Amino acid sequence: MNTEDEIDIHRFDRKLILVEYPGVVENEEKAIRTLGGLQNISTTYSLRNRRLELRFRPDDAFSKPACGDKHKTLSLLLKIKIRRKKKNEQLLCDSSAEDSDSSSSVCSDESTNTRCSIVVMGRIETAYRFKNLCDFQYLTMNPEFGDHGQMVCKYDSLVPIGLPTASWLAGSAPYFLPPATFSRMDTMQIFEDRPVWSKNALIYLTKYSSDQLKYLLPAVAYYFVTGPWRIMWVRFGYDPRKDPNALKYQTLDYRIRTIGGLKTKVKAKRSYCNYLLPYKSSPSCRPKTAVITKENLQPEKVKDKENDENVIGDNIYIFHPGTIPPSRQMFYQYCDIDVPEIQEMLEKIPCPPPGGKCHERLGWMPSGIDDRCREIISKLVTNVLMQDNEAHESDKSGRDQEKDSSENYDDEENTGAEENLCDSEMYSLQ
C-alpha cells in the first residue's frame, strides 16, 4: 500500500464524537448501555447544554449518574496497522484505534521487518469528559441475619420486574430505610396534610432548595402542566378533577398591571432560558454581563434590598393585603390568598350537582370568579404602589426644598459680601 492510496481512504469529512469513559472498557455494548444507549447519546448531543449521564448500574433505580460536560476539541481518530514479517514470509497484522492530534503518516523499519500505516477514520470536534466527582450512592443491601451476617442485595424484593400483581403488593417487604439525606418522609407528610401544593410553598415549608426538590417531588407527587391546577404538584393517588373540594387548590395566574413605580418595586420573573437542570451545563464561553444601577451604589439601598428579599422569601406563596408580589407574574392557590373578600366569595360558590364534571379550563370554579379575584388583588397592589410613590414624592420634594433654601441662603450671603465690598471700595475712593 503506497502513500497515495492511504490518502484516498482518509475520512476527514467524517465527524465523530469522543466520550472519555471514566473506566476500563472491556465490553463496548455494556459501556454504551451505561451511557443510556446510542439513542440517548444522540439526543444529548443534539441539545446545546445537555450533559451526558453515565450510570454504572443502569438497572438500579437508586443509582445516581455521573455527568460528563461537553467540550470543544480538535482531534483525529486514527487507525494504526502494524505489519510484522516473520521468517516464513507471512505478515501478521495488529490493529488498534487511538485518539490523537497528529497527522497521518507511514513508517517502516527494515531492521525489524515491520511497517506501520496510519489511516484517519474521522475528525472529532466534540468531547464529553467526566471531570467531576460522582454523587453518593446508597445500595439496597441489608445483613442476612438481622444485624449480622453477610450483606444481601434486596433490590428484587423492593423493585418489581415488569407489571406487579396484586399478590406482590400484598406480600411482605424487607426492612429498608435510607439515610436522612436520601429520605423523602418530610415531603410525604406535607402531602398527607394537603394533597396539592405549589413549589414555592414546598420550598418554604421543607426548607429544601429548588434543586433538591427536583429529585424528591417526582417520587411522591405528579405535576400539572396546564389546566385549573397548572404548575401544581399533586399527591399520588389523588385526582383533583374528581373532588369538588379541590376548588380551593386551583391556580390563579395573577400578573401585575403596568403602572407607575412598577419596575422599581417589583422584579420581573427570571427568564427560563437561563434555567439549567442538574444534567445541563452552561458553556464557559458565554459572556456574562454585569448590570450596575444607581441603587446598587448606595449602601443603604443594598441593605434594604437584602432585608426585603429575606422577608419575601418567607412566604411568597401567600398573598396578604398591604404587600406587593415578589414578581410581576405569580401563580397563587386560592386557599393561599389571604383576602377576606375573596375567601367569602369562594365560600358562597354552590357545590356542583351530583355527577358534575370538572371543566377542562375552569375546573370547579364558575366563570368570571378568577377575573374578579384579579381585580381585587390589583386594587390592593395599586393602593400600595400609590402610597409608596406618594411617600417617595414627598421625600423628594422635601429634599428639593431643603436644597433650594440652602442655595438661597448662600446667595444672600454672597450678596451681602458684595455690598460690603462695594462700600469699602467707595470709601477708599473718597
String of helices and strands: HEHHEEEEEEEHHHEHHEEEHHEHH
State the helicity in percent bands: 25-40%
Number of helices: 12
Secondary-structure class: alpha+beta
Query: What's the story with the biggest beta sheet?
Result: 6 strands, mixed
User: What's the mean pLDDT score?
Assistant: 76
**Global geometry:** extended
Number of strands: 13
**Rg on CA atoms, Å:** 35 Å
* Strand proportion: 15-25%
Low-confidence spans: 1-7, 91-103, 287-303, 305-313, 424-430
Distance between the termini: 120 Å
Give the arrangement of secondary structure elements:
Elements: H1 3-8, E1 15-20, H2 28-34, H3 37-46, E2 52-54, E3 66-85, E4 91-100, E5 106-109, E6 114-129, E7 141-145, E8 148-153, H4 155-158, H5 166-170, H6 185-193, E9 196-197, H7 199-206, H8 210-220, E10 221-223, E11 233-235, E12 251-255, H9 262-265, H10 299-312, E13 329-333, H11 340-347, H12 369-429
Parallel strand pairs: 1-6
Antiparallel strand pairs: 2-3, 3-4, 3-6, 5-6, 7-8, 9-11, 10-11, 12-13
